[in-house]
Design a protein that fits this description.
The chain is of the alpha/beta class. The chain has one domain: Rossmann fold, CATH 3.40.50.1580. It has nine helices and 20 strands. The strands form five sheets. Strands 1, 2, 3, 4, 5, 6, 7, 14, 17, 18, 19 and 20 form a twelve-stranded mixed beta sheet that branches. Helix 2 (38-50) packs across helix 9, helix 3 (86-99) packs parallel to helix 8 and helix 6 (205-217) crosses helix 9. The relative contact order is 0.21.
């Protein structure tokens, strides 16, 4: 009798365990719409408020960062600001990937023009993003005026560049800016046995193609009623932890990296997305000339106007993705 009772209890326990197993309620996979700071967020929010098929219905705060959740034409979206500069961008992007199921990232913000043909309000969706200030600062060579004494590892690094450039034409044309010698970031991710140099991070072809198609369909975009913006996909962008407002450094960045625009977050966003195997693209609207202007930098004059044009390109790109 006791044996039968024991078996019956075990049977009931087994039934209870089976009944407790339920399918997981998975969160939707979000398209992340990301900016750096307030004027850029304002441009995106104004666009969402003006669209009948876009909404924000929930907010969450994680370690001081506010995440806005909603939908755009049925697509789940999460919107947040990384904060300005490389460290904030990398930290906040990794936090978002850790907290939420994000399938793709569309980053939009303002930038300084490095290409002298660009003007405030123009929008560039660069194919590749480089760190312009990942570098080696070295002493001058007292025996050879105008020359410097780089460490041995950097001299060895430079010797490899011609060979690398044959295989990849997008490797920069490295040359120093006075005592500043450009270098590359070292990256490791799943599937790699050791860290490797990365000259740049390439945006996802699928998202670049969506941006390209979106721009082709967009009507002319006026910038503060002054002129129509130039919008295009292609070329290189550069990222650094500095607000670039120096004419000679701007020329150097153009020579070395063949850059269209410069800013303070995109390469970090690309690096974190690359390590996490998440598709990404960055849309940059020109707010200033990065030192190419005469007199005072006008970034604060055009930041909001440029952000509005950038937001329109952002949502036109999402339209293409939703339609796929």
């Amino acid at each position: 009798m006791k044996r039968l009772l024991f078996v019956f209890i075990i049977f009931l326990q087994g039934c209870g365990e089976n009944q407790a197993v339920k399918p997981e309620n998975k969160l939707p996979e979000y398209t992340a719409l990301v900016v750096a700071y307030a004027p850029e967020m304002e441009g995106v929010m104004r666009t969402i408020e003006a669209l009948p098929d876009a909404s924000i219905n929930k907010t969450e705060v994680k370690k001081g960062v506010t995440y806005y959740f909603g939908e755009y034409k049925g697509e789940p979206i999460v919107l947040f600001a990384t904060g300005m500069s490389i460290a904030n961008a990398a930290m906040t992007m990794q936090m978002a990937f850790d907290y939420y199921p994000i399938k793709q990232v569309l980053y939009m913000g303002i930038a300084g023009a490095v290409n002298p043909e660009l003007h405030p309000g123009d929008v560039v969706v660069a194919e590749r993003w480089y760190y312009h200030d990942e570098s080696v600062y070295v002493n001058p060579d007292p025996q050879n005026p105008g020359e410097y004494i780089p460490p041995t590892y950097y001299s060895e690094f430079l010797k490899k560049q011609d060979e690398r450039r044959v295989l990849d034409p997008h490797i920069p044309n490295y040359e120093p800016f006075a005592f500043i010698h450009p270098d590359e970031v070292v990256v490791i991710k799943d599937g790699m046995s050791e860290p490797k140099d990365h000259a740049y991070f390439a945006a996802s072809p699928r998202l670049l193609d969506a941006a390209r198609k979106a721009i082709e369909k967009m009507p002319p975009q006026a910038v503060s009623d002054e002129r129509n913006a130039k919008l295009y996909v292609g070329g290189n962008g550069v990222t650094g932890s500095v607000f670039l407002d120096n004419r000679e450094y701007r020329k150097w960045v153009r020579r070395v990296f063949n850059a269209e625009v410069t800013e303070m977050e995109s390469a970090a966003v690309g690096q974190v997305a690359y390590v996490n195997d998440i598709d990404w693209v960055v849309i940059r609207a020109v707010s200033d000339l990065a030192g190419g202007q005469e007199g005072l930098n006008e970034e604060d004059v055009y930041d909001k106007a440029a952000s509005i044009v950038g937001a329109k390109v952002l949502f036109a790109t999402i339209d293409e993705l939703v339609a796929q």
